Amino acid sequence: MAEEKHIDALTGTATTGHEWDGLRELNTPLPRWWLWLFYITIVWSVGYWVVYPAWPLLTSATEGVTGWHARSAVVEDLAALKAQRGPLMEKLSTASMTDIAADPQLLDFSRAVGRVAFADNCAPCHGAGGGGTKGYPNLNDDDWLWGGKLADIELTIRHGARAGDDKGRAGNMPAFGRDNILKANEISAVADFTRTLSGLAPEAGADLNLGKKLFADNCAVCHGPEGKGNRELGAPNLTDKIWLFGADKATIVAGIQNGRGGVMPVWAGRLPEPTIKALTLYVHTLGGGEK
Known about the structure:
Oligomer: single chain
Strand order of the largest sheet: 1-2
Largest sheet: 2 strands, antiparallel
Shape: flat
Order of helices and strands: EEHHHHHHHHHH
Helix content: 40-55%
Structural class: mainly alpha
Number of strands: 2
């Protein structure tokens, strides 16, 4: 005997026969427009299989009616871009930094190339706009650890900092606490005195006289007797308001205790010669480049 259909009293729609805890499932058909769209996608997919490469075979794949390949299209686009950029890239490769900066067309081109290279290679540390972050310098200001002239920036990019290149930037801040050079109370006194160099208030009861003496004995050799810094060593200027790792005492104490020495990669050999020059010019024009 056929099971009698159950009609929902509220909607007048037949149910599927499924029931859970007294709740019945309505047998509501899909909308016509949805079904037609579904059928169209099926037809479209069949046509796509015929027109474009789609089905893998044992050693190859179906070529499709058009024979079009995404990979070959990319290769063609790259070849066209290389042909378009070729003359300027060649000129950028052979010209000096001074010549590039004096040529408006070449300077604009190098900035465009440098902007892309910066986004691909430098932005993860220095930020998309070169604004930097804690431990990574801001390239938009005029505060430079190693110098902000074109030659200085090129050397830093080309050979890196503390990255093992003999021509690269060198200089580490010693770990005065970890290596038992200074005691805990002496580190605290140096930290308090260092903060005063940029106008920051020391902690109550700070022994500034001790801090000043210890600074002269241990820190002045790199940072200078007045704390103005030393670009040859990458020692920052401690008298300005710019603090790479933070100006709170705990951060300064940690730096004195354990030392500082961030690493910048060596880009020579990893980036083409024109790209290194373009990066140099782009960084120089971010806002803080020196003449």
